[in-house]
Amino acid sequence: MDKVQILKERIKEMKSRQLEKGDMILSSLHATQELFDNSIPLEAAKVISDELDVKVERIYELATFYSMYSTKPRGKHLIRLCESLPCHVIEGPKIAKKLKEVLNIDFGQTTKDGLFTLETTSCLGICGVGPVMMIDGDTYGNLTAEKTESIVQKYRGEKS
Ligand code: FES
User: Percentage of the chain with pLDDT > 90?
Assistant: First the structure.
């Protein structure tokens, strides 16, 4: 089954659960990013638009409003480093420097091999274990420069 077909199936399943339309749109955007390497291509936005009977412009409005969604192509793995104050004051900048060095990109960029996109995020709600980053759906806390590098290498190997 291709990605578009899988997306249609997921939306169909949401409809069968009679979720609120707004929830279905956001869940569809989430599902799209899972299927399409962390971004929302026009092709997928049109599927959501057709299936949920919402203008494609509205889908794009939401996709650009929320920072967790992106209409621009991203890497296979999305790394988001928390940049809120509690994480920032405990070694956050050190982790940012390490991530840029290990990935050889700046924030807002994607590695040449298309494997990683590096972004920042606001507080993830687990400040007690800062500094914190999230890779795809997984959260990593108590980061040190060494730990950060080894986590990224793990994604380069096993999870790529
Ligand atoms: S400030 Fe980073 S998780 Fe809250």
Answer: 86
Q: Is residue 53 part of a domain?
A: yes
Please give the pLDDT value at position 159.
53
Span 5-12, mean pLDDT? 96
Angle at 49 between CA 45 and CA 52, to 5 degrees: 130
Residue whose tokens read 């979720």: 19
* Residues contacting 145, CB < 8 A, separation 6+: 94, 95, 97, 98
Point out the domain boundary residue: 65, 88, 104.
65
Give residue 66 CA to ligand 1 midpoint distance, Å: 18
**Owning domain of residue 125:** 77-157
Ligand 1 centroid to Cα of residue 119, in Å, is 15
Q: Which residue has the tokens 């950060």?
A: 148
Mutate to test the pocket of ligand 1, among 89, 121, 123 (most ligand atoms within 8 A of CB): 123
